[in-house]
Amino acid sequence: MNIITKIECNINNTKTQFLEHHKQKMGFIPVTVAALLVIFVGFPLSSNAELDPSFYKDTCPNVSSIVREVIKNVSKSDPRIFASLIRLHFHDCFVLGCDASILLNNTDTPTKIESEQQDSPNSSLRGFDVVNQIKTTVENACPGIVSCADILTLSAEISSVLGGGPNWEVPLGRRDGLTANRTLANLNLPSGLFNLTQLKSNFAAQGLNTIDLVALSGAHTIGKAHCSSINSRLFNFNNGKPDPTLNTSYLQTLRNTCPNNGPESNLANFDPTTPDTFDNNYYSNLQEKKGLLHSDQVLFSTADVDTISIVNTFASNQDAFFESFKASMIKMGNIGVLTGKNGEIRKQCNFINKKFVENDLASVVPKESSEEGMVSSF
After folding, report:
1. Catalytic residue numbers, as ranges
2. For the chain, which domains are there?
3. Alpha carbon distance 211, 197 (integer Å)
4. 71-106 pLDDT per residue, tens
């Protein structure tokens, strides 16, 4: 099976899983087939899952337009918001599933919650204020209807589109979780220093395969990283020498942005060619040894691995990348979702409803970094 066929199978598997799930809800397929789909697609399919792009058709029909308008307005003064919102969705789904746990602040009552935002992979996350702005606008139009988890998922898709990337029908109907897990945030989120074996293992633990890994990594076609994320590659990767997989001219460019012992808060573009456009240049950059993070470049520079052919395909065929990215984002968006009577629809995204009512915390938002950085790989 060549790489194009594998990619097409990955895309078709995701579509098949989604369609067959709806048939299962109607009682049209036996459980044995559903079980095979779970194994074949590679992620758990909750028996009570009710995700559907038309979930809010009657209860909040304009939700996508509302989310889009807020993000579009914010992007006029903050063009990096697209990358930030995509990253928020990723960091949410890799810890306890796509349940908006990443948005919860520290609380002691009614139950103790240790915010995932304060774990090192999440310390540079940004965009929380924008999510809260979206939530407020949505609540004004459709009070108590749309979950923060769905807002994160919609925001990621809309950010892709506004950045010039692909669009897709977002399955909706997630409910918000009632807790967070700081320990899992540290364990589950991939590091920018990971090698390929570690990355594959990390993604497999979430039910995501190698094509998903390479496709989702393509989100690094936009956004920036702090110098603290790459300094070791530039000056002390191995016995005081730089990472040999770095293009030498690119190395010097990065050293100008991130001088030795200079400010670690300086920012470098993930894509040195079209940094604000969602395209497939991320992959051609890898071919030229211009991956910003070590975990980017290992997709192409690790010897004799299957990711090389996927990178080559995406570098030469943007449509193939876009289709795979769409399929992988839908697949990731199904990780550990809460539906039905599980979870809740938070009134304010940073607190569970009991805490919100108890202390009237509508105006409280998490402290976030003023800059966008990457401690984790994604």
Report:
1. 91
2. 196-200+206-329 (1.10.420.10)
3. 14
4. 999 999 999 999 999 999 999 999 999 999 999 999
